[in-house]
Design brief:
The protein has 611 residues and is mainly α. The protein is built from 29 helices and 3 strands.
Length: 611
């Protein structure tokens, strides 16, 4: 599947194999990948997809234990840089260098980047740093020259390396070269990255540097326009990483202005910083903007998927191994000590009826526009714009091959939910239908517990909708129990929950609501607090204003016996902050709910809300 998609994208863009894979792998390797004869590891797959201007977040990946360990080491290193804990950075790098994969180009490139950061921290010498970064870029872009930028096909990591290179030029006072190259890089990102889900990870980074430069040069209007555009892209894609730095520069450029937009931006920045402080999270620094990323990559561990599927199927290791694999080998695979050969993995898949391949999508297609249309539907669903969804979905159905089980599941799930929203089916019939749709990809034996399953985002989405219907059928305890069970499936996993952030935040949002409606107020507050902290960690802004407002509503309910003045002093700080953040993230539905609530219950504080 992944090979066919890469081939289709490459041929559509008329990119020769040699140019696409240059520095990443050999032409022969790319040919084998495109012919589905070889499965690339996640690091190589991501780089190839990004060079095609698309986002690998459209796929969820079943990783080996070894690849996941490398991801975790990278996270530890980057956290160390954020916290200025350079001993932790060095320790993480040394651990990374011991991995056998460290000798491969993509991993050597990453290690050289971190070594450059460490060296610059020790010496503060931008010349030495420039040489190391050039060497790092050269690992995958041989003979790289800034002046030839438009001739390359660059992955996200390569773009970030170029940004670091440009900061080295600035550190040497080479301002003309810095300014020209920075503008060219921003233009390159604009034209090359046609997938917004990927563009939002790098465009705001480059925009931050260019806006800062324009501000230093006194070009305040131009700098403010750059900030406004980048903030709009972040808000549209529900991302908060990078937004505080852009707001600061925007306000600096608007310091002599006293218009409503400037006042709103001041409040939005103040509220965002308040949330960071309230939840003990360090506000993002401009220096962190280069390496922090809002990736929504969804990953599973191969050994977990196999183990949970085998236990759910009530199959012994001996039976699963059959004539091909000894029970001891299955045991080592399930413990993560051994990675099965791709052919053996496929045999295990078949024996267990596992629908998860190495790379997976909710819709199987070679047409990348299908994924982009699907993502747009998801974005509309988050804001309950069901009239628009219906039209988009009708267009999308025409592009989907209904011979694939995952495609059938997606189409039936979406159509069933739209029918319910249009009152064409009762809640009870919709629950029964959704359970049938879920069974297309999950073998639920008698006594099967969801908390032990490795759920895809699509499967989690179906279960959450079933819980929503239970609640509407006045079976709230059943809804709460189901959501807790799904949440537990992610909490029980070895995989960090941030790799399932969309599903986890969707579960928490509904769980908090039903707990609050049934007067489990302390538990509802706890879920709210967990959700806000998790949102800040993942850089997801879509639910941030909602969760803060929800905490205000729950506290208001808990303080019902207190005076209006006491309630106002506690609850309104949450409502006002939630209003500002909802406006920042363009969530006007939530903003209006908060504004109306304040007008009805706390008219004295309405001067804190823009009309």
């Amino acid at each position: 599947m992944i090979g066919n998609l890469i081939f289709t994208l490459r041929t559509q863009q008329e990119i020769p194999q040699k140019k696409l894979c240059c520095g990443l792998c050999s032409d022969a390797t790319l040919s084998r990948i495109e012919l589905e004869e070889r499965v690339p590891d996640k690091f190589l797959m991501d780089a190839i997809i990004q060079r095609l201007g698309k986002s690998p977040d459209k796929f969820f990946t079943v990783l080996s234990e070894r690849d996941y360990v490398l991801l975790c080491i990278r996270e530890k290193i980057e956290k160390g840089m954020e916290e200025d804990d350079w001993a932790a950075v060095e320790e993480g790098l040394n651990h990374y260098l011991q991995a056998k994969e460290a000798g491969l180009n993509l991993h050597r490139q990453y290690c050289e980047k971190i070594q450059a950061f460490l060296l610059y921290h020790r010496t503060g010498d931008p010349v030495i740093c420039e040489k190391m970064i050039l060497s790092s870029i050269g690992r995958t872009v041989p003979g790289f020259e800034l002046k030839a930028l438009k001739d390359y096909y660059l992955s996200r990591e390569e773009v970030i390396l170029i940004l670091i290179l440009l900061t080295c030029l600035k550190g040497q006072g080479r301002m003309d070269e810095y300014s020209l190259s920075l503008q060219e890089l921003l233009d390159y990102i604009e034209t090359h990255y046609t997938d917004e889900e990927e563009k939002v990870k790098i465009f705001p980074k480059a925009a931050l540097f260019l806006a800062e430069l324009k501000s230093e040069q006194g070009s305040y209007i131009e700098a403010a326009d750059i900030c406004r555009k980048a903030i709009g892209l972040l808000a549209k894609n529900a991302v908060i990483f990078g937004i505080t730095g852009l707001l600061r520069i925007y306000l600096l450029c608007q310091k002599d202005s006293n218009n409503e937009d400037t006042k709103s931006a001041e409040k939005q920045l103040e509220s965002l910083l308040w949330v960071y402080g309230e939840y003990g999270a360090a506000p993002e620094r401009e220096s962190d903007a280069i390496h922090k990323c809002n990736s929504q990559t969804e990953v599973f561990l191969m050994n977990e998927v196999i183990r949970s599927s085998r236990k759910n199927s009530r199959m012994s290791q001996e039976v699963l191994g059959g004539d091909n694999l000894a029970p001891e080998t299955i045991s080592r695979i399930e413990s993560g000590k051994r990675k099965p050969h791709i052919n053996n993995f496929k045999k295990i898949q078949k024996a267990l009826g596992i629908d998860k391949d190495i790379y997976n999508v909710d819709i199987l297609t070679n047409d990348f526009t299908v994924y982009e249309k699907k993502r747009e539907i998801e974005r509309l669903a988050a804001y309950h714009h069901y009239d628009e969804i219906k039209d988009r979905f009708e267009e999308l159905k025409q592009l989907i091959d209904m011979d694939d089980k995952m495609n059938v599941q997606y189409v039936l799930m979406t159509q069933t939910w739209l029918d319910y929203k249009e009152k064409k089916a009762s809640a009870e019939k919709t629950v029964n239908k959704l359970n049938e749709i879920l069974d297309l990809t999950i073998k639920r034996q008698t006594g099967c517990q969801i908390e032990h399953l490795s759920l895809s985002k699509q499967e989690a989405n179906i279960i959450v909708r079933i819980a929503i219907l239970y609640n509407q059928m006045k079976q709230s305890e059943k809804a709460i129990s189901l959501l807790k069970e799904v949440l537990k499936s992610y909490q029980n996993s070895q995989i960090d929950m941030k790799y399932h952030s969309v599903s986890v935040l969707m579960i928490m949002s509904n769980l908090e609501k039903y707990l609050e409606e049934n007067d489990y107020l302390d538990e509802a507050v706890e879920i709210c607090d967990q959700a806000v902290a998790f949102t800040l960690r993942c850089g997801r802004g879509q639910f941030l204003g909602k969760y803060i407002a929800k905490k205000g509503f729950i506290l208001e309910k808990k303080m019902a016996e207190m005076s209006a003045a006491e309630r106002s002093s506690v609850c309104c700080r949450y409502f006002l902050r939630a209003y500002d953040i909802s406006c920042l993230m363009r969530d006007l539905v939530s903003a209006n709910i908060i504004k109306n609530h304040l007008a009805d219950n706390y008219p004295a504080v309405m001067n804190g809300v823009k009309n």
